[in-house]
Amino acid sequence: MKKSLDTQISTWEMAKQSGLSREEYETLCVKLRRNPNYAELGIFSSMYSEHCSYKSSRKYLKRFPTKGKRVLQGPGENAGILDIGHGWAVAFKMESHNHPSFIEPYQGAATGVGGILRDIFTMGARPIALMDSLCFGEAKNPKTPSLV
How confident is the model at residue 30 (pLDDT cuts 50, 70, 90)? Predict the structure, then answer.
């Protein structure tokens, strides 16, 4: 009989395949006081992915100024908003969709753009320009030609 997902105990190898570092997996085991089950491992690996937690880029993002007399909305909401004078404001949004775009390039990029538009609209703004920067990886990688 096959174990259900909530009873199957995870291993370091499973965590590694889920994108977790050994340190992250060990921290999870310590906090739970046991190895996580398969379902918990899936939840944790999603929450601590670059896409959700910005674990590798957060240190760089923190360098940007977030407060000032023209900052109407800083980080934490759907989009940042700056007062540009004369009753006008501009909303900015950046989305990291690297992993979803790697797995499924076209749909990953499309949902990234959709998320940006959603967040601009939820702040009561209207988009007037949009840029989607795409990176394809090394030319030697066998998957790269199928992305270009």
Answer: very high
